[in-house]
Amino acid sequence: MEFTAGENINKKRLDSALIEFLPEFTRSKIQKMIENSLILVNSKPEKASYKIKTGDNIKILEKETEDIEIKPQNIPLDIIFEDDYLIVINKQKGILTHPTPLNKENSLVNALAFYGCNLSDIQGKERRGIVHRLDKNTSGLIMVAKTNDAHLNLQKQIREKSAKRKYLAVVYGIIEEDEGIINKPLVHFIKKTVKMNTAPEGKGQEAVTHYKVLKRYSDLTLLELELKTGRTHQIRCHLSSINHPVYNDTLYGAKGFTSKTVLTTKEQLLMSYYLSFTHPVTEKLMEFQLNETQYDNDFKRFFKLTERDK
């Protein structure tokens, strides 16, 4: 894979720019690839701290991935749309997006291997087809690429913010403003752990989340959220940082909150319910929004319970 650096990444560090260009790769993975001369700038290796110039040719020779075997598993797929280039899937809670070193089964990639369709492979076996990810216990709409060209096109739309992703979340407490923006950079809470934390200005990775209040309950708020960046646990960490963690999100502070609405769930009440992008081949606007019959069981039970308590 190779590309020419545009003005949007001019003067950025090589490793930081590649994290934005390849959002599915971790910083450590990209740095390792740079150290192993698997990433070339103008046909030669450069340090991670190299400042990119507009017009630089950046070439990725190969992906540094583990040669793991993906076990096909008969996990039901809720396919919303499919053609020769991509699939849009309604991912259920409890399913990983892709295998990890500790969990090599029960993921969307394992399910897709059983399904047997063509998938892009530019990010290695364990992330075949995966354009962007959802947390294990976040349900909803996710894009899967069947070809490498479609994969790169869709990732570019996410990177340039022309693809739109909206989420529903139930949070603790009453948010008084009808809408707002959370603009706080994120860093790993502890090195090599998945949990994230907000960082001082000028540190960490840029992270911007827009929110809009859809409904207020006695001590909970239903939000629609739109990602302007796509960082690990961005919504969950951002909402916790303003003292409104997602309902039952134990990783981000839910244990310290109570509500009159008592519901046992598989962790957080967070769902990717809207997705729009331009088709990578036909250039048609593709727009998808889940209706209540397509929500995960936890959201269905929440709305049923709150409707009954009126």
Structural classification: alpha+beta
Count of DSSP-assigned helices:
6
Helical residues, percent: 10-25%
* N-C termini distance: 56 Å
Uncertain segments are none
Largest sheet: 9 strands, mixed
Spatial shape: globular
**Gyration radius from CA atoms, angstroms:** 20 Å
Can you describe what's shown?
This protein has 310 residues and is α+β, with helices and mostly antiparallel strands. Helix content is 18%, strand content 26%. The chain is built from six helices and 15 strands. It has helices at 14-21, 27-35, 108-115, 148-159, 234-241, 297-308, and strands at residues 2-4, 39-41, 44-45, 57-60, 79-82, 86-91, 139-145, 164-172, 179-183, 186-188, 196-198, 208-216, 220-227, 270-278, 285-289. Strands 5, 6, 7, 8, 9, 12, 13, 14 and 15 form a nine-stranded mixed β-sheet that branches. A four-stranded antiparallel β-sheet has the order 1-4-2-3. The chain has a two-stranded antiparallel sheet with strand order 10-11. A hairpin with a 3-residue loop joins β5 and β6. It starts with a strand and ends with a helix. The mean pLDDT is 90.
Task: Pick out its properties.
310 residues, 26% strand, alpha+beta, four-stranded antiparallel sheet, nine-stranded mixed sheet
